[in-house]
Design brief:
alpha/beta; binds adenosine-5'-diphosphate; about 40% helix
Length: about 400
């Protein structure tokens, strides 16, 4: 069975075609800078990679190019689109209505459309992708896999803000959490590494990518997570600040006269590593700046690691203990220095790294905790595409 996964961002589409029976990725790629000057499509298929700079004004054209590349006579992985048995879409926000992966019908698409106000940056491009995919593959079942679903069972004490209750009851203002596809994929893999003991374990998973969030997992269930109604809350990210006093927003608007759009841009695009360092949203560049003596880069790294450390402490308290700490995503998988800074002085919790193992873990699955330490510390690469594909197969099989 061949499954195509699509992950549409505001100006990009990540895709992967998998042969689920053989557990093999047949083709993958990225359409980038959609609607911008330097749009391009990168594809890898049959051991051959290529990048083409093309005019890609909208997601529809991007999807057409993906299908064309899959059908390419020389390097394509398909001879006919009908070979795609199902398409799985990453959908960022499922609100409270979608707590599991769901077959996309017109009714479901309309419901996701209604939720667009909860994720104004994320859901609209995804909806465009879904519509175009339905147009290009009209007879192929399409499935939505939600980033919020893994957090659907967070208890009320973790997901309700202490705001006037009517905002929760009438306007669905609550904490939802994101990166659920990544957390679910990492939790699944962690279960295997624990020999099937996730159900009895207290685990904290830190997804440290360009976006970043951290989740407390008790017995396999997300019981708290750092992102909230939107992905702004929580950890320091590439361009988002994570937790800030909401009074800062009032100050920006009332005293500095910023408009809603300006505050939105400031919180989503100008803050985090980028805003603190003034150098980049990319961890590698901030680290290079700090090594070269740039004080703001050094401060950015310190604030970043301190925030993750604070959440680990908070979640160990929320869980009433800690068995396993897991690092994943770009920074979490590849950056021994940040992992070391986060874990420094956490021995009182039972967290102690094996410096050599930590240093050797770069993009690979690895145990990085000291063998005699009470808490296991793992690096587990995330496989969001793999999880979307598995969920898609499960939904189609249940039809
Ligand atoms: P996204 O949220 O876009 O999926 P990723 O999970 O790919 O992001 O993570 C991107 C982040 O990972 C960037 O800040 C990048 O600098 C960081 N990163 C990637 N490789 C390394 C590395 N070798 N060392 C440190 N940071 C890295």
């Amino acid at each position: 069975m061949r499954v195509l996964t699509l992950n549409c961002g505001s100006s990009s589409i990540k895709f992967q075609l998998r042969n689920m029976d053989a557990g093999k990725v047949l083709a993958s790629g990225l359409v980038s800078r959609i609607g911008e000057d330097e749009s391009a499509i990168e594809t890898t298929s049959g051991g051959h990679s290529r990048t083409r700079a093309l005019d890609i004004p909208a997601h529809g054209r991007g999807l057409e190019l993906i299908v064309e590349s899959l059908l390419d006579e020389e390097y394509g992985a398909l001879t006919d689109v009908s070979e795609v048995a199902a398409v799985g879409h990453r959908v960022v926000h499922g609100g409270s209505c979608f707590t599991t992966s769901t077959l996309l019908t017109n009714g479901v698409i309309a419901k996701i459309e209604e939720l667009a106000h909860l994720a104004p940056l994320h859901n609209p491009p995804i909806l465009q992708g879904i519509r175009e995919s339905v147009r290009l593959l009209p007879r192929t079942p399409q499935v939505a896999v939600f980033d919020t679903a893994f957090h659907a069972h967070m208890p009320a004490k973790a997901h309700v803000y202490a705001l006037p209750y009517r905002l929760y009851a009438q306007s669905a203002v609550r904490r939802y959490g994101f990166h659920g596809i990544s957390f679910a994929s990492v939790a699944q893999r962690t279960d295997r590494l624990l020999g099937g003991r996730l159900a009895e374990s207290k685990v904290i998973i830190a997804h440290l990518g360009n976006g970043a969030s951290i989740t407390a997992v008790d017995g396999g269930v997300s019981v708290d997570t750092s992102m909230g109604l939107t992905p702004i809350e929580g950890l320091v990210m590439g361009t988002r600040p994570g937790d800030v006093d909401p009074g800062v927003v009032l100050f920006l608007m009332r005293d500095l006269g910023l408009s809603v759009e300006e505050v939105d841009h400031l919180l989503n695009k100008e803050s985090g590593l980028e805003g603190l360092s003034g150098v980049s949203n990319d961890m590698r560049e901030v680290e290079a700046g700090a090594s070269a003596g740039d004080e703001r880069c050094r401060l950015a790294l310190e604030v970043y690691a301190y925030r993750v450390k604070k959440y680990i402490g908070a979640y160990a308290a929320a869980l009433g203990g800690l068995d396993v700490l897991v690092f994943t995503a770009g920074v979490g998988e590849n950056d021994p220095a940040i992992r070391a800074a986060i874990c420094e002085d956490l021995e009182f919790l039972g967290v102690r790294l094996d410096p050599k193992a930590n240093d050797g873990a770069r993009g690979t699955e690895r145990e990085i905790g000291a063998t005699e330490a009470p808490v296991r510390v793992l690096v587990v690469p995330t496989d969001e595409e793999g999880f979307i594909a598995e969920q898609t197969v499960a939904v189609v099989a249940s039809l």
